[in-house]
Amino acid sequence: MSPFLLLVFALAASGATCGQASTAPDRPQAALQESARWTPPFVASLEGPKAPRPGELVRLRLTVVRHLVDETPMAISLSLPDGVELAEGQLEEKVVDAASATLVREYALRLGPEIPRERVVVKVEQEGEGWGARAEKAYAFGAPDPRDLQAPLRYGEPVEVGGHRIRPVKLDE
To answer: Residue 42 burial by CB count (10 A; 0-12/13-18/19+): exposed, middle or buried?
Structure first.
């Protein structure tokens, strides 16, 4: 049997048609695509001033947008670096709110005589029956976010070193 006839038989056995559009939607495929659209139960963001000064009061704002609004308890905790004290807000909180799609928490931190090198870390955790979610956000007191190792390199202007022309890679910006 020729390869062409084998192809025709294989296509016929699979239900393929020639020159006709299928009018019935593929229900299992549509259900699979619909289930692949996953949304997290919540998304957290943390905002603070870009350039705080030593000794001043720094205000942070945590916003939690909830895609799953129910009575499942949510734990919010704050970790502070040395030299920073909490002036307003709670270090740990358990939230049970079956109505709010957005939760907002504000914190005031009193800085010491120096800007800390460590970051403030806020954790939001929720654990339901058979599922759990966690978000961790950090505030770096105005320091730039660390660059991803897979991020594209940023080059500086070419320079001549030892008779060779090179383009240095920028590390901090």
So the answer is: buried
What are the backbone dihedrals phi and psi of residue 119, each rounded to the nearest 5 degrees, phi first?
-100, 155
Sign of CA dihedral 144, 148, 151, 154: positive
pLDDT tens profile 89-132: 999 999 999 999 999 999 999 999 999 999 999 999 999 888 89
Q: Which CATH number covers residue 97?
A: 2.60.40.10
Number of domains the chain is built from: 1
- Any domain includes 97: yes
Kindly state the tokens that stand for 145.
């976010």
pTM for this predicted structure: 0.65
